[in-house]
Structure prediction request, 210 residues.
Amino acid sequence: MKELDLLKKDWKKNADSFEQISEIEIYNMIHKKSSSTVKWILIISILEVMFWTVSNYFSNIDDILQKINHPEIVLFMEIMMYVNYAVILAFIYFFYKNYKTITITVSTKILMQSILKTRKTVQYYVWYNLGIVVISSILSFFIGYVYNPDMALIREKLALNGKAMLVSVITMVLITLLFVGFFWCIYRLVYGTLLRRLYANYKELKKIDF
Prediction:
């Protein structure tokens, strides 16, 4: 009987050991998946900046700004562009910092905190970009309508027709909403998928009790 009790105690010790190893393996798997997900967030954000940089290079925005012949507006747009790049680069730096933190951490608690921090940073990044889309659309319509000499005849006609002016404003609002909706769908598809993966990892980590 004594031998049976000793055998049971030994089995319980081994069972606890196997459970601990299993949890460590689960942690390592989640750690690897989280690191990979944050790395993709970093890569996609860099590719996004490169895409917009190349797009601006091949666009005719500079020609339009020169046509309106208002140096103060050109200066304002340039300052806005540099500020936007500075903010985007700051976000990319935070993405890189979060990636490094998640990659080297060996603590479940720190990994969970880093996942939540990364999710919050990405959400701020998405909302910032959507805000820039709204501001850029409004500025583009306003500058094009008020300062573009090619719009002079249209401005005169709209000034004499209140209904046509209202229709034009509603059209611009709808176009802006379409732009915002389009980019929101893209961000939700790309970054939203990555954030859902991160949150799934976070919920799995909460189940682990070291």
In short: The chain has one domain: 2-207.
